[in-house]
């Protein structure tokens, strides 16, 4: 059976406000997520984002919820049409203080509802599970080395 979601938590040695900036500002998103840039038109529900990788191309996203500095979510697709509830997965970031750092919880859900074959759903779960492991390690290193 295809898992419904991917979940990962990490603790970052940086304050919540810095981690918030790292996950919500295009210049910072480009520093850890994707290797060919990021665009963000406006940080609001309905705002558009594009993350780009040299190997995988562009992934369009639409912002779902913004609750600074504790919750941020978007829907995205793999280089296809504009994301909707019917053709995308939902990525949710939850931030909470932990000592001098930040606990970051990421959940990506909706894989079983994607309008693709079960084989493609399983492939996306596998690819994104590995991807979130790598990207969150990059996010952690990036956020911890920032000084502002």
Give descriptors for this structure.
Alpha-D-Glucose-1,6-Bisphosphate, Chain A, domain 4; 7-stranded antiparallel beta sheet; 148 residues; alpha+beta; 7 strands; 3 helices; 30% helix; single chain
Protein model, in words:
- By secondary structure, this protein is an alpha+beta fold.
- It has a single domain, classed as START domain (Alpha-D-Glucose-1,6-Bisphosphate, Chain A, domain 4).
- It is 30% helix and 36% strand.
- α1 crosses α2.
CATH superfamily: START domain
- Look up the CATH topology: Alpha-D-Glucose-1,6-Bisphosphate, Chain A, domain 4
Please tally the β strands and state the result: 7
Write down the overall mean pLDDT.
Answer: 93
The fraction of residues assigned to DSSP E strands is 35-45%
Summarize the entry for a quick read.
The protein is α+β, with helices and mostly antiparallel strands.
Give the topology, please.
Blueprint: E1 5-12, H1 16-24, H2 26-32, E2 38-40, E3 48-53, E4 57-67, E5 71-76, E6 89-98, E7 101-109, H3 118-145
Antiparallel strand pairs: 1-7, 2-3, 3-4, 4-5, 5-6, 6-7
């Amino acid at each position: 059976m295809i898992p419904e979601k991917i979940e990962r938590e990490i603790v970052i040695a940086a304050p919540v406000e810095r981690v918030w900036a790292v996950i919500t500002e295009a210049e910072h998103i480009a520093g850890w997520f994707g290797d060919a840039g990021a665009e963000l038109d406006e940080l609001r529900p309905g705002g558009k984002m594009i993350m780009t990788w040299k190997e995988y191309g562009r992934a369009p996203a639409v912002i779902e919820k913004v609750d600074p500095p504790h919750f941020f979510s978007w829907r995205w697709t793999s280089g296809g049409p504009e994301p909707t509830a019917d053709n995308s997965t939902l990525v949710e970031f939850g931030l909470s203080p932990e000592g001098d750092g930040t606990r970051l919880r990421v959940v990506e859900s909706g894989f079983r509802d994607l309008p693709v074959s079960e084989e493609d759903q399983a492939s996306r779960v596998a690819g994104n599970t590995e991807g979130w492991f790598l990207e969150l390690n990059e996010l952690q290193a990036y956020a911890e080395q920032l000084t502002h």
